[in-house]
Amino acid sequence: MKHSNTILHIVFGFAIVVLFILVAKNNQSNSKQQSSEPLQIAVKDSSGNIVIKPFPVAYIIVDSLMRNYLYYKKIEGQYQTLVKQEDSKLQQQGQAFEQEVYQLQMQVQKGLITSRDAQMKEQELQMRQQKLMEWQQSKQQELANKEQLLMKELLDSVQVAIQFHNADNKYEIVLNNAFNSSVLYAKEHLNITDTILKIMNERFSKSTTKK
Asked: What is the pTM assigned to this prediction?
């Protein structure tokens, strides 16, 4: 989309701040095994005692997810076409208006129009200019609303895929590790982007096959 990357960062770049205590595993001789251990959190139970419980976390890179999501590629092309069409209409309207302004200027300079008629024509052009600006703003708002709806639809697709993958509640939280997100570092084994992408593309492919 014309400014889809920015919208993606706005829509998907939500900051999830989790306050928890990471409990290190003692006497781990195998570093690979240690890295695969789930995170743990220290919490208070109903009696006020501190207990340690698993806190499995995963993350997805939404930027990468969307670049490779088949449905996103489809609607991106459709949206780009719509934007170009509206831009073309606006340019045509603007060029026609500029041509009328130029013609009026030439008529005034050559004395081919009376002052009264020139004044009336100028007022008419001012009204047209105002309507043109309002039309432009209206179209921009329409495109922004449409893009917002598309982004919501994409976000819903991500959430549905995550819920499907996490049906057994294997993760307590799934973070967004996209550019400008709040996650500064995360180990690769926590990355489930490819898994979620596969689910999303399979769902999209099935939906298109049914039609």
From this structure: 0.67
